[in-house]
Design goal:
Low-confidence stretches of chain A: none
Radius of gyration of chain A: 27 Å
Strand content of chain A: under 5%
CATH superfamily of the largest domain in chain B: Periplasmic binding protein-like II
Shape of chain B: globular
CATH architecture of the largest domain in chain B: 3-Layer(aba) Sandwich
Low-confidence stretches of chain B: 1-25
Order of helices and strands of chain B: HHEEEHEHEHEEEEHEHEHEEEHHHHHH
Order of helices and strands of chain A: HHHHHHHHHHHHHHH
Mean pLDDT of chain B: 85
Largest sheet of chain A: none
Distance between the termini of chain A: 48 Å
Radius of gyration of chain B: 22 Å
Structural class of chain B: alpha/beta
Number of helices of chain A: 15
Number of strands of chain A: 0
Chains: A mainly alpha (358), B alpha/beta (337), C mainly alpha (397)
CATH topology of the largest domain in chain B: D-Maltodextrin-Binding Protein, domain 2
Largest interface: A-C, 55 and 55 residues
Distance between the termini of chain B: 67 Å
Mean pLDDT of chain A: 83
Oligomer: heterotrimer
Chain lengths: 358, 337, 397
Amino acid sequence: MATSASAPPVATTGPLAWIKENLFSSVGNTITTLVVLAFLVWTIPPLVQWAFTDAVWAPDNAACRQASGACWGFISEKHRLIFFGTYPYGEQWRPFAMMLILLALVFTTLNTNNWGRLLWITWAVALPAMFILMQGGILGLTFVSTSQWGGLPLTLILSTFGIIASFPLAVVLALGRRSDLPAIKFICVLFIELIRGVPLITLLFMASLMINLFLPTGVTFDKLLRAQIAIIMFSGAYTAEVIRGGLQALPRGQEEAADALGLSYWYKMFFVVLPQALKLVIPPMINNFIGLFKDTTLVSIIGLYDFLGAIKAAGSDTEWRIFFLEGLVFAAVIYFIFCFAMASYGRYLERRLDTSKR
Amino acid sequence: MKSKLKLALVAGAIVASSVSGAMAGKDLDAIKARGELLCGVSGTLGGFSLPDSKGVMQGLDADICRAIAAAIGTKVKFVPLTAQQRFTALQSGEVDILSRNTTWTLTRDTALGLNFTAVTYYDGQGFMIPKKLGVKSAKELDGATVCVQPGTTTELNLADYFRANKMKYTPVVIEGTQETNAAFFSGRCDVLTTDSSGLASIRANDAPKGKSDDYVILPEIISKEPLGPVVRHGDDQWLDVVKWVVFALVEAEEYGVTKENADKMASSTNPGIRRLLGTDPGMGKNLGLDEKWALNAIKATGNYGEIWEANIPPLGLPRGLNALWSKGGIMYAPPVR
Amino acid sequence: MTEIPANSQRPPTRSLGGRSFYDKEVQGVLWQVVTIGVVLGLGYYLYSNMVANLELRQIQTGWGFLWRPASFDIGESLIPYTSASPYWKAILVGLINTFRVAVVGCILATILGVFVGVASLSRNFLVSGLTSVYIHSLRNVPVLLQMIFWVAVMHAMPSVRESKPLFGFVATQRGLFAPVPAAAFGWTLALVGLLVAVVAIWIVARWANRRQLETGEIFPVMWTSLGILVALPFVGWLIGGAPTEWNVPQLNRFNIRGGMSLSPEFLAVLTGLTLYTSAFIGEIVRAGILSVPKGQIEAARAIGLRESVIMRKIILPQALRVIVPPQTSQYLNLTKNSSLAVAIGYPDLVSTANTTMNQTGQAPEGIVIIMVVYLTISLTISLFMNWYNKKIQLVER
């Protein structure tokens, strides 16, 4: 006997069922939902009102003081100082261009499909090009000394160059730590544990206070370069640990096969082991980059004007001082956008690499 | 592999291009070779070193550096430094001279490896407090919260004063002039303490608009603060140059040589003026500078009195101790001869 | 088989002490000698430069400065300290302040992090969504920025004269003030009672465990522990004379005096560190709980255990194996991040050592002190982690 198909009962599929299952499935659950909803209703509307409805967007100090909402006028008034630091006003297209080039290169490199000779050549050309773009002095660009570099470009430079330049150091340290030669292993372990055991701020203090003492009399280093060296050493130690993880994850068979073929140590490392290990560790490396990006805020403590330092400098104007909080919220949003984008990309890459191995 | 080599070469080039300074170790030679005097200043103190709306550094400390740069024939570049950074910046070579309302003390002159040159401003430490607290004297400050910057003689004198008077206080130590001022004006602490000239400047420039009169500077001066430019140990010639440029500026005021009349005065018959301005040669050669060293300095910024008049009166401070010795103050320059 | 003729020529081999140059071991030794030589040479070069520079600048060196009077005051200190105390005491005060914020921060961050981690696995979509927002927003903002934000919030609190006390608690821009019991013998005895109670609870728990293993009878450990925890300090308090006086914060001419005070800088550093680290700990706890194989939970339910027992006896012990190593490194990160207090004005170790370096000009010694202290803390925590890891390792067949 055939019966006609009927639609399922209302409350077992569709959005209603989902709500019932997830939010109201038991007494405890229902109470929790109600409490959380009450909390959200209590906090979100006033927040939206403060941040958007009552906010002042124009750079008008008087209007800002009158209004009860946020004063985003602080940002619109000082956005050049906040984004580019004390870089000369007319030349600010240069750091902007540099940032675009850098971001484009980084995103291209993260996709391992693009690895190849063309990519390395592009990097080798782009790095000095970016440096020339920022500093100028030749090709008709006016000279801008590194003490005037600041804001978001400085944060990007410190973190990206930090990771890139620390790479060779990290590879050497990771290989050295896994070496059978006790002296080399000892030195590498000492270096890594020493750097990882101290906070970055002490390394930056050491760089800004002591590097000049270590150099021959009369030779001085640019302050930005000193901070960059400290960041490179710091990043090198952490990246070395990540690479060591990758080396350990590689099946021993690869190394043993290379040995059986009679390849020398360096040949084996550079052509068999490292390419595979490095491809494995890209997701943790992205985490490292995000961490380093956040850690560049510490250079504001030694007097370099990175993005956070620029916001603090903008907030020191006595007229706009009371709206400093809005500046901090804005800075937090910008950092969040960058870091969240990188983290999401990292998660996406991780999923892709996982499936591709099967 | 190849790209790593290229990277190394590029990095090496970058490093090489940023390493500066002559290998000789002599500061004056290095400055002349560079063509630019690196002058460490505060950059946040009105009347002493504060950029105006066009970004040009104005103030007494800044003008002293300009005079020195004119005397040695180079340009000048101002490097803002906090109180915590200033000495290490000078020690490490980041700046050639510190003109940052720095107090001359024994420890700084010896243990820090620095040389004080001459006093450009005789000052003392004081306290500023909101009027509504009704405090009339520094001796009533027992139990107060005091904002102070770290790494200063202010911090030390404050501790000594309260200990000597058996009073207690809570220090709020904040780095950076602007942050300290902001904390004081927001009410985080009751009292702000620094050099009286600084207090006057902060009261005039950094107080909330129109509220300068709500704050009063207490009458007690609790320390001697002779302020002046500082250089490193190791180059006696540079030390002499800086010292004598400052003395020349004071002598110029004694002789009545000003920015306007300096060129005319060069042909004066007064032997003192002739020696000072280089018409009678010899002084420049002794210092290792051009004979017109003092003339250039005076033409760049005016004599000491003119520098003072251009920067300090807006703060509401009297000439006081900083007047010439012949006019009731203690500004006294050894003779340029 | 042909024999090798006695006088046949063997190819000449380059040798080092009888071993061939191409021998891997010989090469290994050579590499190490070269590396050590380079490292030592570099170290010597840097060191001699430093000594030459210090001499040229006539900057003082040596550790004698530690015994000179510091001449500066520190805003908050748990041990008695005046401006006449020596520099080493100033640095010690900084170290104690670092521990203060680190220990409290670790405890609060763990509590908050575990709560967030467990909540993120909730079936309630709102709750898990909120925790996701919490974790992602706090992880992706630099901790220094968060600390500066909280300092700005603290400074925006009402001033001391405008604030209104609530049950004796006062929140002002100069800090949080809380009433505390006035110091009396009774309270000291209560504290002693508390310590004795902790030891007693531990003994009772072990005894109950052994009894259960032997006889199978369950002892109500939790209720007994609660009872001991309340009763023993109470008895101590009674014996000490039952003091009831409170030290209530009062507004004086300049400040609020009395009671316990937490400075806004301490609160800002604590809040920033706690929230930031709790986001990471939340992720770790979540990963740990998810790492327990589903079969364990299903089997536990199949034999009829209650949810709370499943959590306590089945999930947590297995999850802890995965949670503890990254958790310990988060504690280490929190301690290292507390050094950022130097930017806020909280007198931690880096801050007081920095002031010392500035007043005495002896930067190398100061930096060595800071690095040695932090290295000791890191190594101690690493050693603990290694010991714990070995202790809970799965002993496989």
